[in-house]
Specification:
This is Elongator complex protein 1. The chain is mostly helical. It has 29 helices and no strands.
Length: 591
């Protein structure tokens, strides 16, 4: 595709170069006289519109030149020749280009005579263009005429330029007319998102020297519109300074909060509200907005929590709320520091110590639950992968899901055979796992069971019958239920069970966040003298880590020895041994 695009681009450049060379040569030959000019007129406009992009201005410029010569000429015969030549060019252009495009380009040159000529030969319905052209012709002011045409064509930037001239010329007119023009400019700004152009045409700095109150309000409104546009695009800091420029303190405060510039937001509040009580209430509002913002982002940003606690202390003088917030988010050390700094020993006992003990109980319960689930999933994954290993050992494709998408009876029989084989192998006593039984002894029971299961006439007819049954559950295209439906009814033997169980094992393993949380709890428990609880918590997590180290997730299709895959031990301990995993143990404790 890239090669074709390059070729097309090169071809377009060549066409433009050739057309440009022809046009330059024709312009030199036209100096020889009117006869040569008339002869070369059609080749010239053809080269103009065949470029990419088409140069309608140059092609229509020739028509304009002929029409204006017709107006100036006193010789009726020559005047008739010029008009005939102009009409011939218009007909030629209509044949070469899109009629509507040609009409719009002619209208964009602001020449109503040219537009009427093009419209006449384009076979357009006069009702489509005559009323508009008559309305434009009524304007004596050239800028009004150009503004109306550009607005009609959707050229908002050009329309705004002409409108700015009308606004500046209206300085000596009535305030009502000027306000009307300014309202039109604001609507045009919003419709075309021309805020930068608006600030260039109507600089805000000039508003300070303006005598007219409406003019100052108009320029201020442009700044506010640009600020609203930036805020909607989540460019909060840039929007905040525009709001400041327009003296909108409330919008500036909101934008500073969006940019996480809470210091500037509070500085604005302090400047605007001189009373201590007003500032205190404003600080509460800002703190709540920061918490709401964190909740909407669904992130537990500790930095934001510390900022809010700081606002509670410094601006609201509310130590209770600050300590409660820190305890809720398990920032034990900072909560302890603030409570003692402000001589609030009662908060240490009622909030911090109580919170630490409650959190310790919750974490102990969670660790115990996770360890039990981990062992359960580990056993199931070991069983699944041992069965798959035995299938490969005997050259049997025991994957139930490899042919799950087939609609043929043969695929159903194969799936049924695999299920029967799985069932046969699942009856193996797990005590044989890891033993040194011979392949023949392992194969005797499995092969006999498999043969008996798949060779019977009942099995074959039953498999065919099952294949013809319509599924009871709603399925998506391809005959497979959605992933959400499969997860809802996840059960032993299902196609996604192995991946599901493996994912559960990964999620249950101790991670850096858990270790950091336990480490902080241990420090607080020792600080408050709850050594037994600290010892119990450290022993619980250490035991969980040991369990994961001894029972790592078995590698796919790898031999098991004593229920442990030696090749996957390193991978399973990767999380605990990585640099990101913190050192959480307290050396003074055992375990």
């Amino acid at each position: 595709m890239g090669y074709k695009d390059d070729t097309s681009s090169n071809a377009g450049d060549k066409v433009n170069s050739v057309c440009r060379a022809f046009m330059d040569a024709i312009q030199e030959l036209e100096n020889a006289g009117d006869e040569a000019e008339a002869t070369l007129l059609l080749p010239y406009v053809t080269c103009a519109v065949k470029q990419s992009p088409a140069r309608f201005d140059e092609a229509l410029g020739k028509v304009q030149m002929l029409l204006h010569r017709n107006e100036r000429s006193k010789d009726e015969s020559k005047s008739s020749q010029h008009r005939t030549a102009a009409m011939r060019v218009i007909k030629h252009l209509i044949m070469l280009t899109d009629v509507d495009r040609l009409y719009s380009e002619a209208l964009g040159l602001y020449d109503l005579e040219l537009v009427r000529a093009v419209a006449t030969y384009s076979q357009r319905d006069p009702k489509e263009y005559v009323p508009f052209l008559d309305r434009v012709a009524q304007f004596e002011n050239e800028n009004w005429r150009k503004y109306t045409i550009d607005e009609h064509l959707g050229r908002h930037a050009r329309a705004l330029t002409h409108l700015s001239v009308l606004i500046n010329d209206a300085d000596n007119d009535s305030e009502v007319e000027k306000s009307r023009l300014q309202g039109m400019a604001l609507e045009l700004l919003k419709r075309g998102e021309l805020y930068d152009q608006g600030l260039e045409l109507f600089p805000f700095a000039a508003a300070k020297h303006s005598v007219s109150e409406s003019d100052r309000a108009f320029r201020r409104q442009i700044v506010l519109l640009k600020g609203d546009f930036l805020e909607a695009a989540k460019k909060y800091e840039a929007a905040a300074y525009l709001y400041l420029l327009a003296s909108d303190q409330e919008k500036a405060r909101r934008a500073f909060l969006g940019a996480n510039k809470w210091q500037m937001a509070l500085a604005l509040s302090a400047r605007n509200h001189q009373g201590a009580e007003n500032l205190r209430n404003e600080a509460y509002i800002i703190a709540q907005e920061l918490l709401n913002k964190q909740h909407q982002q669904q992130e537990r940003s500790i930095e934001d929590i510390l900022v809010v606690a700081r606002i509670y202390v410094e601006y609201c003088n509310d130590i209770d709320e600050a300590v409660a917030l820190l305890v809720t988010h398990q920032q034990w050390a900072e909560a302890l520091r603030l409570a003692y700094l402000h001589k609030r020993d009662d908060l240490v006992e009622s909030d911090v110590e109580t919170g630490v003990l409650q959190c310790c109980d919750d974490v102990l319960e969670e660790l115990e639950r996770k360890e039990k689930l981990y062992v359960k999933h580990w056993k199931r994954l070991s069983t699944i992968r041992e069965q798959k290993r035995l299938f490969k050992l005997h050259g049997i494709d025991g994957s139930r899901w490899d042919h799950g998408n087939g609609d043929t009876d043969a695929a159903s029989i194969h799936s049924g055979a695999s299920s029967a084989a799985d069932s046969a192998l699942s009856n193996v006593s797990m005590s044989s796992v890891g033993s040194h039984n011979s392949a023949a002894s392992i194969g005797n029971f499995s092969m006999q069971s498999l043969s008996a299961a798949t060779a019977s006439h009942f099995y074959a007819t039953q498999a065919l019958g099952d294949a013809n049954k319509k599924p009871k559950t709603k399925v998506k295209h391809g005959g497979m239920p959605s992933r959400r439906e499969r997860r809802k009814r996840m059960k032993k033997g299902s196609a996604d069970e192995e991946a599901y169980v493996e994912q559960q094992i990964k999620e249950l393993r101790p991670n850096a966040a858990l270790a950091q949380e336990v480490g902080a709890l241990l420090e607080m428990l020792i600080f408050f003298g709850h050594v037994q609880q600290a010892q119990k918590l450290q022993t619980q997590l250490a035991g969980f880590e040991q369990c994961v180290a001894v029972k790592p997730a078995p590698a796919p299709s790898s031999p098991l020895e004593n229920g442990i895959s030696a090749t996957s031990v390193t991978g399973a301990k990767e999380g605990q041994d990585s640099a990101a995993y913190p050192r959480w143990r307290i050396e003074a404790l055992q375990g």
